[in-house]
Amino acid sequence: MLQTDLIKGSIRTIVLKLLKENGRMYGYEITRKVEELTSGKIRLTYGALYPVLHKLESEGVLVTEAENFNNRIRIYYSLTEKGHSLVREKVMELLEFIESLQSIVSPQTGPSYA
Amino acid sequence: MLQTDLIKGSIRTIVLKLLKENGRMYGYEITRKVEELTSGKIRLTYGALYPVLHKLESEGVLVTEAENFNNRIRIYYSLTEKGHSLVREKVMELLEFIESLQSIVSPQTGPSYA
DNA sequence: AATAATATATAAGATGTTTATATAATGTAA
DNA sequence: TTACATTATATAAACATCTTATATATTATT
């Protein structure tokens, strides 16, 4: 597992992107999906995930629906219209950030006339 | 400029990598180099940079040399042996992290038999 | 003379994350 | 049938990290 503090700051974007791709999801499902997509390299903790979800809700970025499943309450989160445009922004920002990181840590991949 | 909270957690690795590539550097020079490499997209703030440098020094990862330049003191930072092996670790970790992020935000780039 | 750029640094406040903890139902293996 | 793993949501305390504001001072440029 990675689980370094690199994850700091990207949880919001990850959550938003997953909700965009998968429609509505519940918290546990989000953590599973992240593990699946990253081959277990990234694991969101609930102490980090739920505060993010609650904040996004209070900002009007997503809405919740509580449903009963097997005598348990399951809370589904889905993007609002505002959420959808935020995803686009945030994902672009993340891609730019990744590019920037790469230009620091990776050697130039320009033409090599070798 | 990006300057989102995505940078959180990657400053250490960025600093370490730059010191490895450039030998010794001083604080201001580090911020310049990051701006240069990222076309101004990432800007380290001093409030973030200096605490990181001081912490790395206290951990024995880097050492300082104060030199006089134009009537001003300039403090050069360079990696110790311990620092050199930490860079390798941290950069690998960052590359893995980038890969993980990409598998979340980017579409699969597998063979497309189209 | 004023401003921008160079240069290091700290404190206060804000934010975000980990770790620990609580609760509870269902499925599974011994 | 007991114990454990998995499913499921959630909060509080502690910790780490970052931004913003601030201080200081020299040199170069307009």
Description of the structure:
2 copies of one chain form a homodimer. The first copy, chain A, is about 55% helix and about 15% strand. A 3-stranded antiparallel sheet of chain A has the order 1-3-2. The first copy, chain A, has about 110 residues and is α+β, with helices and mostly antiparallel strands. The first copy, chain A, has one domain: Arc Repressor Mutant, subunit A (Orthogonal Bundle). Chain A has 4 helices and 3 strands. The interface between A and B is medium-sized, with 32 and 33 residues. Chain A binds a DNA duplex (30 and 30 nucleotides) through helix 2, helix 3 and strand 3.
Biggest interface, CB < 8 A: A-B, 32 and 33 residues
Strand order of the largest sheet of chain A: 1-3-2
Average pLDDT, all residues of chain A = 88
What gyration radius of chain A follows from the Cα positions, in whole Å?
Answer: 17 Å
Number of strands of chain A: 3
Calculate the terminal CA-CA distance of chain A, rounded to whole Å.
Answer: 38 Å
Tally of contiguous helical segments of chain A: 4
According to CATH, the fold-level topology of chain A is Arc Repressor Mutant, subunit A
